[in-house]
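Researcher: Good morning. I'm working through a list of sequences from a screen, and I'd like to move beyond sequence-only analysis. For each chain I'm collecting a predicted structure so we can compare shapes side by side. This is the next one on the list. No need for commentary yet; just the structure.
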Amino acid sequence: MIAIDLVGHGGRLEEKPLDQICLGDYADDVVREIESRDLQDVVLVGHSLAGITLPLAAHRLVGRLRRVVCLSTANPPVGQSVEDRMNDPLSPISREVDFETMFCNDLDAETSTWLLSRLGPEPPGPMAEKITVATGPPGVPSTYILLEKDEALPPAFQREQARTVQADEIVTLDAGHSAFASRPQELTELLIRCSRL
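Model: Good morning. Structure tokens for this chain:
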């Protein structure tokens, strides 16, 4: 399993000014990582805002992919942006919710502190960009993992996102938005199942 730090995040905060980062940079990061390692039969997984990166990267990696997996992702339709979706009544982003409630509702205090300490400012460009590709490439199967206790992207909102990406299947996990921290074993097993389909 490879976790990619996108430019402006994690260990790559200083590589480029946040106000100069665009969605294409994110897709480039994913494609570069996979191509530089010459990976094949890849299960491409994205979480939350990575939903806007997955389709772009997947279309460029089609010959290398086994499956695309959306883990409680935000997926605006073509012609809209994440910012546009903030006005949707189903969108949790349109209401005032603190990060601890959104991201840590099923985490213990220690894990919540750890997770919140790693949050930083989000580059504004990708949030404002209109989506040009909303679905994965034809012939590459897709799964949407719906997190049933998610307070950041509630289940009704996730189902709408799954329809936008035209997911071949929707599977559920009894977890909040940060399932990788609250239910790591169950999430791992679910991703392994997806990789074997």
